[in-house]
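MODEL INPUT / OUTPUT PAIR
PAIR INDEX: 1
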Amino acid sequence: MTLQTLSALLDGAEAAQYAVGAFNVSSLDQAVAVLDAAETERSPVIVQAIAGMSAYDDESRWWTRLRRLTEEYASVPVALHLDHGRTYEDCARAVEHGFTSVMIDASRSNVTDEPASFEENAALTRQVVELAHPAGVSVEGELGTIGGAEAGVSGVVEEIVFADPDEAVRFVGETGVDALAVAVGTSHGSVKFTDEAGGQRLRLELISEIKRLLTGTHLVLHGSSSVPGEAVAAINAHGGDVRPSYGISPEQKSSGIAAGIRKINQGTDSHLAWTAALRTFLHEHPPVVEPSEQLRPAIAAFRGMVAQRMKEFGSAGRA
């Protein structure tokens, strides 16, 4: 199979009522882990990168190499996606580098990071659609404000501005997006929800209502990581300092899929798995300086977490 658009992958997920995992990567090692998991699990997959977030100084070469790597995995359907493009220029560069899908996150101002008006969001999103669609590239937009930090570094959970179903209909009508990320109770980053009560965070009735009104548009769940406690504990036991918290449970994500979610973004869980394995290895093997020995357990842990999520999302065995 060749690289596919986001629309094509999610059309298949809609027909069979599962979700495709979209996994953030910031290095070729992480991309290999995601693609190896997809090949092993026979799962469609979305490999996604964020502008300005990688282990490399030259982003153009990074994106070119990432595109080439995804093309090597011909046995599984793969979409190469730009996650959280904040500007028109971000999306234009991704299209030029062969990404098959771009997300324009115009829900917040690129200058102040404050919530943008509906009109500002729709206008910029429409510009990106007019750029991408003639090039055969899918577009994802965002409505509402999802809490937390996309890079997972601040640990500050902002107030969530939930998506409005009627505005969702208007937004899709005015922009023509193929997929829509909706704020329904999740939060970005490695520190999510910390109150003692825990419990449900997804507004399943809101997902169902938006899905009922937007039958032809694929719904996306951002900030969906579960924040496994064992990974956080392993990191902190070996010199780390990650604040314990909780995210969205696998059971909640399954309910979200049943309500209409077709793309689930995940970054934090696989990053926690990577970091826990790396810290543990370095602690247990202090003389080791060979990078390959250090990276091997980190890549394996990353791959294992991705494979686990593929099974939970229902995409395993679909390729």
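PAIR INDEX: 2
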Amino acid sequence: MTTQQLHEQILLKKSFLCVGLDPDLTKIPPHLLETEDPIFEFNKAIIDATHDLAVGYKPNTAFFEAYGIKGWVSLQKTINYINENFPDIFTIADAKRGDIGNTSSMYAKAFLEDLNFDSVTVAPYMGKDSVEPFLAFENKHTIMLALTSNEGAFDFQTLITNGKELYKQVLETSKTWKNSHNLMYVVGATKAEYFADIRKIVPDSFLLVPGIGAQGGSLSEVCKYGMNDKVGLLVNSARAIIYASKGTDFAEKAREEALAVQKEMEEILANK
């Protein structure tokens, strides 16, 4: 999916919502534990209930890898289900990979080719040769960690070196890498006050924004400082939507939560 196609889907659905799929067997509705593949059944129900309200889904691979081979099979079934039934949905493998040379090439192949995700999240700490193998995939996107929503982000990302915050240097340097037009960036919703400066560096790039809902980020603040002329935002919500209920009505309640976010986004887009 190209960024233009993604933008078209945002306008069509009046939504820039991305639903995070973080399946935890200790949190999903108990009745699903009796099925052959509880993780896939949970994901499928959430997708079926929200696909018209969301433009993207972001499975966090840790929540699948934790269950070994069975979890990986569930991940494959989940991405196949989305690709086969909802090809206009943007898919993100939230894997946060990052290594050099052949290792990154194999990570990229695993997620962008074999599993056929539209994008994958990466950590840039090891520099360009850990990211460029992902960028080599045509019509695929590499979503690089820039300024994250967690408390520990201040340990390194906002440190000033040579008179400038490290995250700004990371953003500026990444623009010089080969195929950097395939880059998107992760910026946490809890860092809304930083969006204006980030937009000065990457005015046209899509930003994946986790942290609204359970983490306390403000959608209106994110949009105020982070939205560009083509929207340029994918705002992720996971726990607030997928764990809205542990009963047999969990999918219905997930839809209600997703609809509330979508309606807020629709109003923001209308005012924009």
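PAIR 2 NOTE: The first helix runs from residue 3 to 13.
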